[in-house]
Design a protein that fits this description.
The protein is of the alpha+beta class. It is 28% helix and 30% strand. It is built from 16 helices and 24 strands. Helix 2 packs across helix 4 (53-62). Pfam families: F-box, FIST_C.
Length: 614
């Protein structure tokens, strides 16, 4: 029999609930709410932003700065690997404006695509691609890992052993982000719609920013030998985009994608193949609340050194079946035409037979007329790299197409010492970049980075670990970053030199740095911490009780879902609800955020303007 002197449990629950609802409500200042929302994981944060207009306003203040989140998993199970990286990148508040996932070929792209799309909502632009290796911090241990999946000779390991995923999610207020595809008709297999690709990028940028030049492009090309030749595509893109537009990416891989604008989504189309996709970053002209500008910085590292004299191509034959070029050549200034065997013998003598042909390239200097639409053609000069297959008494054989009779070229060999020296220059470049920005009257913050490195540049190439990531990690410790080992790394930066040069498929690396700049103020607005929030109230007999209630709101609540439901039903959707609900109610993925209404942004080879520092 119940003791009549003791209150019933239901009565106690009602009193507790009433205290939270009446007392706790008046204690929930903006500063306190800001501090609490900032501690929530992304799914709970997304639900909290939908509670009321005032909560949404405070949540926007929590995410007033740009943010990058990244995680890596080497678990062989795709479900486990995706769960690990998703849980890590959504640990803290973030509204994804874009997502990039790179996986080993042991994972099926479609499986990974479904798992990630389900968690990130329907409006987030996503690119899922295969990689020859991944770089990042482990989702469980936070340990730095460079996982190059190629063997010592540069060949790719067995598909069954090629597991792993690195996921990067970005929130970039002040920018609009979407995926622009490069299409090729299924009826015209040889002709990609390159001009349309460039115009689509310009039109998208113009529609959201009022100008035709994007801030940056991350490009992923499709590996289809004989059908997709990214070199001329990159040349046109290099011509069409101003120097201020940063371009990085992976020339050869496989990918799936989803656009924010469904009209641009041709993934799986029966009418078009997608030869490449450009994750395009453009200024948001409607963003009137921006407190600064997001900018990109690129640092380039090359891993080859020049060998021997300069040659000119004397005769050219093209083999479209294996996507290769056969050529003879003569040394610059001489008349004798040399076959492939003679050329290779001379190079081997120079190198004293220390380099295998698989580590040799020719860098071909080209001059081409380029134009888009009705624009006046302009001549550009660039350098394209071709891997050496071998040579015999007839021809020198190289991978790739696009060499013409009379083109000048020089041999290059992969060189760990050159690569290490170049890595040192990259580290110094990033150090100077950080120092120069900090000395100006500008509040400067690097919030993320991405590395595109040539496969084969791992620990077997350098004979030491984690070399490619070291410049970023040393200069920006604790800043999120990710990276991949590519089949053809792409990177472009401006130079004081006037020539435009492309470094292609030649043991190179590009570091892509996200940074945020805003004017300094005399006093910075710093959220009030939870401890201070309790002491900011005026002295009163209820001061200690208020502190107790604040602390209670930050702890897991004892009420059950059933006890909380009547509170939810009795409240107007525009009234703030008791914060205790956030610790009890399970919420789904970020699909509950209306990004348009709430103001969130929707979202080959190393190329560079200027002669490579060799």
């Amino acid at each position: 029999m119940d003791d009549p002197s003791r209150p019933s449990s239901s009565s106690s629950s009602r009193n507790d609930t009433k205290m939270v609802k009446t007392t706790g409500f008046f204690l929930l200042t903006d500063d306190l709410l800001h501090n609490i929302l900032a501690r929530l994981p992304a799914p709970s944060f997304a639900s909290a932003a939908c509670v009321s207009k005032s909560w949404n306003r405070v949540s926007s203040q929590v995410l007033s700065r740009p943010k990058l989140a990244s995680a890596l998993s080497l678990d062989p199970s795709p479900q486990v690997a995706v769960r690990e990286v998703i849980d890590k990148v959504l640990t803290d508040p973030i509204r994804p404006d874009f997502a990039i996932a790179s996986v080993g070929s042991g994972f099926r792209l479609y499986d990974i695509f479904k798992l990630i799309s389900k968690k990130l909502g329907t409006k987030t632009p996503i690119i899922i691609s295969t990689a020859n290796g991944i770089i990042g911090r482990d989702a469980l241990t936070d340990e730095l890992k460079e996982w190059d999946l190629s063997d010592d000779d540069g060949s790719i390991t067995s598909v069954d052993e090629n597991f792993g995923i690195v996921l990067t999610v970005g929130f970039v207020p002040g920018l609009k982000v979407d995926v622009i595809p490069l299409l090729r008709s299924t009826k015209e297999l040889r002709d990609a719609l390159v001009e349309k690709f460039v115009m689509d990028i310009r039109d998208y940028t113009d529609s959201v920013s009022g100008c035709k030049s994007p801030v940056g492009i991350i490009l992923f090309g499709m590996a289809q030998e004989g059908l997709v030749n990214m070199k001329p595509i990159l040349n046109i893109l290099d011509y069409a985009m101003p120097e201020e537009t940063v371009i990085v990416g992976d020339e050869r891989g496989r990918f799936l994608y989803r656009t924010a604008n469904e009209s641009r989504n041709f993934c799986g189309s029966a009418k078009f193949f997608t030869d490449a996709v450009a994750l395009t970053f453009a200024r948001d002209r409607n963003n009137t609340h921006a407190i600064g500008n997001i900018q990109f910085h690129v640092a380039l590292s090359n891993g080859v050194s020049a060998i021997g004299p300069t040659y000119r191509a004397a005769s050219i034959r093209v083999n479209c079946l294996d996507h290769s070029t056969w050529l003879t050549a003569k040394i610059e200034g001489q008349r004798a035409i040399l076959d492939g065997q003679r050329i290779m013998n001379d190079i081997n003598v120079t190198l004293e037979d220390h380099v295998d042909s698989s580590d040799l390239y020719i860098g071909v200097t080209k001059r081409r007329n380029c134009s888009i639409g009705s624009e006046r053609p302009r001549i550009i000069t660039f350098l394209s790299f071709y891997g050496i297959v071998g040579g015999d008494e007839e021809y020198l054989y190289v991978n790739g197409l696009g060499i013409r009779t009379g083109n000048r070229f020089q041999f290059y060999g992969s060189d760990p010492d050159t690569a290490l020296n170049s890595i040192g220059r990259v580290s110094l470049d990033l150090k100077n970049f950080k120092f120069n920005e900090s000395t100006k009257n500008i509040s400067h913050e690097v919030f993320g980075g991405f590395i595109f490195s040539c496969y084969g540049r791992g620990d077997t190439f350098f004979t030491q670990e984690d070399v490619d990531s070291s410049p970023f990690v040393k200069n920006f410790p604790g800043v999120p970053f990710a990276g991949i080992f590519c089949g053809g790394e792409i990177g472009r930066s401006s130079s004081s030199l006037t020539e435009e040069v492309a470094i292609e498929d030649a043991k190179d690396s590009a570091a892509f740095v996200f940074h945020f700049r805003r004017r300094r103020r005399r006093t910075e607005d710093t959220p009030v911490c939870v401890h201070d929030a309790g002491s900011n109230f005026t002295t009163s007999p209820l001061k200690e009780e208020r502190k107790v209630v604040i602390n209670r709101l930050l702890q897991p609540q004892p009420e059950s879902h059933a006890q909380l439901e009547p509170q939810l039903e009795s409240q107007s959707p525009l009234e703030p609800q008791p914060l205790a609900i956030l610790n009890e109610v399970e919420v789904g993925p970020l699909v509950c955020i209306d990004q348009t209404k709430f103001g969130s942004s929707h979202g080959s080879t190393l190329r560079k303007r200027g002669v490579p520092p060799i």
